[in-house]
Amino acid sequence: MARMHTRRRGSSGSDKPATDENPEWSDVDAEDIESRVVELAEQGHDPSVIGLKLRDEGVKGVPVPDVKLATDKKVTEILEENDAKSEYPEDLRNLMSQAVRLREHMAENGQDHQNKRALQNTESKIRRLANYYRGDEIDEEFTYTYELAAELLDDE
């Protein structure tokens, strides 16, 4: 997705270690991890932030390098089981909040052509992602509008 609206290449980053079992130094009980995930979600954290917090802070002082290896479930699956899942997927929500911020900026700075294009690109990404999720993660009738995105952000 890095090359969607530019000629630039994506930036390289580190890869997760290729392993299929939880390291022995991280022997936290799966139920403890699940309850901590739900607790963090109730505090308003997104799934990606929950993963970072578990990695950095851990559960009962023991870091959890990979929730899926430790519990056999993804963070989003745990949230789904405990009815703590948000209405829209995290990546779609983040793009919508970016679009709202850009739209507000454009209202004050109509002459900012660079950000006008950035807004067009962001809204294009939202529509593409909505097509991907439609009927599965989001409602079949979903159509992106600025009003919907602004309302979504006001609810949070």
TrEMBL record:
GO CC annotations on file = ribonucleoprotein complex; ribosome
On whether Hydrolase is a keyword of this UniProt record, the answer is no
Instruction: Tell me which domain of life the UniProt entry assigns to the organism this sequence originates from.
Output: Archaea
HAMAP family to which the protein is assigned, alphabetical: Ribosomal_uS15_A
Q: Which residues form the Small ribosomal subunit protein uS15 N-terminal domain?
A: 1-59
Q: Which family is it part of?
A: Belongs to the universal ribosomal protein uS15 family.
Q: Which UniProt keywords apply?
A: Ribonucleoprotein, Ribosomal protein
Residue span of region Disordered: 1-33
Q: What is this protein called?
A: Small ribosomal subunit protein uS15
- Where is there biased composition of kind Basic residues? 1-10
Q: How does it assemble?
A: Part of the 30S ribosomal subunit.
> What Gene3D superfamilies does the annotation carry?
4.10.860.130, S15/NS1, RNA-binding
Q: Mind telling me which InterPro entries this protein's record contains?
A: Ribosomal_uS15, Ribosomal_uS15_arc_euk, Ribosomal_uS15_N, uS15_NS1_RNA-bd_sf
Record keywords: RNA-binding included? no
**Gene name tied to this protein:** rps15
BP GO annotations = translation
TM ranges: none
Compositionally biased tracts (Acidic residues): 21-32
